[in-house]
Design a protein that fits this description.
single chain, about 190 residues, alpha/beta, Rossmann fold, five-stranded parallel sheet, four-stranded mixed sheet, 7 helices, 9 strands, about 25% strand
Length: about 190
């Protein structure tokens, strides 16, 4: 696999990584394209196949694993798989783009390990676990049990922050967006006006 740069944004659920990635995708000078992950979970709310995720059946996901079609994959919860298809990254690189990922911590670190020379891995840190719980509840997309599972996982994920190239503390969204823009612009070699 050869192409542009890989920019990873990882964080516990509710930290703001998706908001940051969406903001960066709107900056044309960065020449970014979003890597759509595959998942075996069902769509939530307004999510669309091919735009937010590639929604595939568990059996199909497992077949892709056997075929070595994934750059990285993980069974996040039982029969709840997420992964990055090699074909997705190759497609975006063929378009001459730098690929940006909104991906879980374990997946982000796996990609960084496979492509250290072309990857910028950024960890988005929430203000606190309590704030994370408030943000997840405000979404109103998951049960209390799911939220509690995500909070338990967040504690483990926060401990991995030092393994990333950069850490953005998302205490103030405007500041976090500016920091992310500058980090990515510097990495892809683009001058931006502050």
């Amino acid at each position: 696999m050869k192409g542009g740069k890989l920019i990873i944004f990882s964080a516990p659920s509710g930290s703001g990584k998706t908001t940051i990635v969406r903001h960066l995708l709107k900056q044309p000078e960065l020449n970014l394209a979003f890597s759509v992950s595959a998942t075996s979970r069902v769509s939530r709310g307004e999510e669309k196949h091919g735009e937010h995720y590639y929604f595939i059946k568990v059996s199909e996901f497992k077949q892709h694993i056997k075929n070595d079609d994934f750059l990285e994959w993980e069974e996040v919860y039982r029969d709840n798989f997420y992964g990055t298809l090699k074909s997705e990254v190759e497609r975006l690189w063929a378009e001459g783009k730098n690929v940006i990922f909104d991906i879980d911590v374990a997946g982000g670190l796996r990609i960084k390990k496979k492509f250290p020379e072309v990857t910028l891995a950024v960890f988005v840190k929430p203000p606190s676990i309590d704030e994370l719980k408030i943000r997840l509840k405000k979404r109103s997309t998951e049960s209390d049990d799911k939220i509690n599972m995500r909070i338990a996982k967040a504690s483990v994920e926060l401990a991995t922050a030092p393994q990333f190239d950069e850490i953005i503390k998302n205490y103030d969204l405007d500041i976090a967006l500016k920091e992310a823009h500058k980090l990515v612009a510097d990495y892809v070699g683009v001058d931006i006006k502050n």
